[in-house]
Amino acid sequence: MHFADAAAAVRAGSLSVLSVGGICIAQSLKIPHDHKQADFDKIIRQLLETHNARAVIIFAYDEDIRGILNASKRADQVGHFLWIGSDSWGAKNSPIQGLEDAAIGAVTILPKRATVEAFDMYFTSRTLENNRRNVWFAEFWEENFNCKLMSSSKKEDTSRKCTGQERIGTDSKYEQEGKVQFVIDAVYAMAHALHNMQKDLCPDQSGVCGEMEHAGGKKLLKYIRSVSFNGSAGTSVTFNRNGDAPGRYDLFQYQMNINNTLGYKVIGQWTETLQLHIDEMQWPNGEMEIPSSVCSQPCKTGQRKKMVKGMPCCWLCEPCDGYQYQYDETSCKLCTYNMRPNGNRTGCQPIPIVKLEWHSPWAVIPVFLAMLGIIATIFVMATFIRYNDTPIVRASGRELSYVLLTGIFLCYIITFVMIATPDIAVCSFRRIFLGLGMCISYAALLTKTNRIYRIFEEGKKSVSPPKLISPTSQLAITSSLISVQLLGVLIWFGVDPPNTIIDYDEQKTINPDKARGVLKCDITDLQIICSLGYSILLMVTCTVYAIKTRGVPENFNEAKPIGFTMYTTCIVWLAFIPIFFGTAQSAEKLYIQTTTLTISMNLSASVALGMLYMPKVYVIIFHPELNVQKRKRSFKAVVTAATMSSRLSHKPSDRPNGEAKTELCENVDPNSKLQKCLFRVIGGT
C-alpha cells in the first residue's frame, strides 16, 4: 500500500486481519470516531474469532493504536497478535509509550525519506513578523513555545505571554516532518505537468491560453502521470499507469536491542522488491520459528472447505462422509452406485463382490444336513429296490414310493444348487429344482392320501372300488400335478430368462468400508415364494386329506404317518416364512435367506423320509420275519372288516386288551385285479 492509500486508511481508522500465504484479509474492522474503551475491547474479541489469523495491520492515529494495544493487554493477549503498523505508526514512540510489552515484535513501515536542509533553513527563520500570510502560524507559535500571544487566545493551559522573539529550533525542539520531501515533490510534479501542458497547448504564448483553460482535469491528470524529474531527495519522481509513484519504504521492528533496551530496528526495505533480514527479526514470547497467521488451517485429505460467509479466506473443514469423495477443495461428490471412496477419499474404487462360499458357516450346516439326507435317501431307495417284491414294499405302493423318494432326493440336492456360484446354468437349475423336489414329494403324498380317503369313503357306501386307484392312474395323477409346476417354470423362463446380477443395495452399509456387492441370480423374494407357492398349496391340500383320514385304522394304510409328516412340515414352513421375509432388510440377507430356505427343505425331506420310510426299512432289515404275507380274505370280508374297524376305533372300551386290529390281505385269486388293488391301497404295513 502506498502513501496515499495509507493516509486514507488512517483517516478512516481501520484494522485488517491477515491470513498470510497469498495474503488474504480474514476480517476488516473499523474504529469508531467517537470511540470508547468498550469499542476497543469489542474489536479484540472480534479479532479473536479468527484465532489463527494473528497478523493485524493497523491504519490508525496514535491514540487509536494505544487503545488497541491497551485492549489486547486487558484481554490477556499480549504476544498473540503480530502487529503491522502503517506509516502513521512508523518509528514513533508516542503510540506505544507505556505499552512497550504489547508492541514487542510489531513491524512498521516508513516511506524512505531524506531531510531537505533548505526547508530547515527556511522554516527555522520564520517569525511572527515575516510569516503573516499563514493564518495558522500564530496558533502554531503558541503551541510550539507554550505561550499566549494575546488575552483573547484560546490557549488556556498556560499564562505565559509570548514575546515574539522566540526562535524555532532554538527556544523549542524542532525535527523536520517526515513528509516534507513528498510535499515538495508533489508541488514540483504539478508544476512540471502544467509546464508541459502549456508547451503543448500554448506553443506560441506565454502563460495560460484559452485552450489550456478548457482542457479539463482528465487531460491535466494525463500530464501529471507523464512527468519525470529528480525530486528534492535526488531520487527520480515518476508515476505508473495507475498514478502511483515507485514505493520506497524502510521496514522497522520494535524489539529488544543488544543493550536490553526496547527500540525500533531497521530489518529491511522495499525498493521495487522486498529486501528483508529475517535473521534479525524477533518474535513475541521468544518464538524461534516464524509465526504462522492463517484464518483456517489447510484441510486434511478427504475434507472439503466450507467457506465462512463474509470471510473470504476462512473456512471450516468438513469431512466427505458416507459414499462421498473429495472432488476438489470445496466440494464432495458421491461415488457411482458400484463404487465406494478409497482410504483417503480422494477418489472411488470398486465395491468388492461377495457370494455365499462353501466354507462359510451359513453353508456348512445346510450342506452337512443335505449330505446326510442324500445318503439316507439312497440307502432307503436301495433297500426298496433290493426287497422290491416283499409284502411291505408292495403294500407301500412301489410306484408312488419311488416317485416320493425322487422328490425327497431333489429336496436335498437343491442345497448344492443354491450355494453354488451363480451363473446362467446355476440360475437355470435353481428355477427348475427350487420347487420341483417339493412338488414331486407332495404330489405323490397328495395322490396317496386322496386315494385312501376315496376308498374308505366309497367302502362305507358299497363294495365297489372307486375309480382311478390303479398304479397307472396314480402315476398319471401325480404326473399331471407335477406338470403344473413344470409349466409354470417354462413360462417363467420365457417371460424372464435367467441371468446373474450384482446387488449393491443389499449390503450397502452406512460404513462404506463394509459395503459389498452380492453376486446372485436374478430371482426376487416374490419369485421364490411363487415358485414354492404351488408346492405349499399341494402340502396344505395333502394335510387336509391327512386330517380327514386320521380315523382310518393304522394297519390299513399310511394315513397316520402321512398326517404326522404333514403336520410337522406345516410347522417347519410356518417358521420359514417370517424368518425369510423378516430378514429382507438385513445386511446378511443373502446368507440368512439361503440358509433358512435350504434347511427348511432339508427338514421337510427328512421328516417325510423318517416318518414314512425308516420304520419300513427297520422292519425289512432287522425283523424280516414280519415281512411275510398274511392270511387272505375275500373282498367282501375286506370291506366289512374295514368298516367295522373304523367303528371300533371309536370304542376303545370294547376292544380286547384295549386294542382292536383287523388285517387285510390279497384275495386267493392272484388274477383278481380288484382285490390286488385293494391290497395295495389299504394293505397293512
Automatic annotation (TrEMBL):
GO molecular function: G protein-coupled receptor activity
Annotated InterPro entries: ANF_lig-bd_rcpt (IPR001828), GPCR_3_9-Cys_dom (IPR011500), GPCR_3_9-Cys_sf (IPR038550), GPCR_3_C (IPR017978), GPCR_3_CS (IPR017979), GPCR_3_mGluR7 (IPR001883), GPCR_3_mtglu_rcpt (IPR000162), mGluR (IPR050726)
Keyword Magnesium assigned: no
Listed transmembrane segments: 362-388, 400-420, 432-453, 526-547, 559-581, 601-623
Residues annotated as domain G-protein coupled receptors family 3 profile: 362-636
Pfam families (alphabetical): 7tm_3, ANF_receptor, NCD3G
Superkingdom of origin: Eukaryota
PANTHER family per the UniProt record, alphabetical: METABOTROPIC GLUTAMATE RECEPTOR
Family classification: Belongs to the G-protein coupled receptor 3 family.
Full protein name: G-protein coupled receptors family 3 profile domain-containing protein
Species assigned in the record: Cyprinus carpio carpio
